[in-house]
Amino acid sequence: GRLLTKARTWLDKQISDEVKEMKRLTTPVIHDYHVVYLHLVAIADRRFNATASWLAQQALEHRSLLSMKGQALLVEALALTGQSAQAATIARSLTEHLVTSPDMGSYFDTHRAALSRESYRVPTQCAAINALTAVDVRANERVVKEMQRWLVQSRRTQMWAEPRAACDAIYALIQGADSLATHSAPLRYTLSRGQH
Fold first, then answer.
1. How is the chain split among helix, strand and coil, in percent rounded to 5?
2. Residues 9, 164: Cα–Cα separation, whole Å
3. How far apart are CA 41 and CA 81, in angstroms?
4. What is the DSSP secondary structure assignment for residue 65, as one 8-state letter?
């Protein structure tokens, strides 16, 4: 706990200093890492401090500068801090960027959804699933299931070499499982060791 507290104190100071500099600019530039900080604060504290509140306002005003993952993290941060209406508005916008295929499900096919060799678009997909679940599981049930289908289908053709992406995908697949489960069949998950 002590190491985490020291790290958080250091991070808060770094972001606070950066925000002071940003306030001097006529048009502050918001980046995805600012939203990652907001997400961290929301998960840890369930409320924004003054620095995080200012960053959140800038992120809302300049949301077009954020990637799809950045917007998804913003949605979840807003939902966790009780700003449900704003979170729902951005969540709807996120779903409008999805491409849907009957075989593959729903996924992001845009340059604003980061693509890498190791994790493909899995981190963006997972962040969006978590965000939609945080906003309203029932209202977003169909979209979440379609996005989860893409994760399963993409796993069949891609090797997720990055452990964090694989863990994020597993979490996104079980995210909201209790509330999305039907009574007709129990959910089963199998973990195995060995070859992929």
1. 65, 5, 30
2. 25
3. 9
4. G
Q: 46: which DSSP letter? A: S
Could you give the CA distance from residue 45 to residue 158 in angstroms, rounded to a whole number?
36
The pLDDT value recorded for residue 191 is: 65
Asked if residue 179 has pLDDT above 80, the reply is: no
27: amino acid identity, one letter: T
Cα separation, 72 vs 180, in Å, equals 20
- Name the amino acid, one letter, at 119: S
pLDDT tens-digit series, residues 75-134 = 999 999 999 999 999 999 999 999 999 999 999 999 999 888 777 899 999 999 999 999
Residue 95 and residue 143 in contact, taking contact as beta carbons nearer than 8 Å: yes
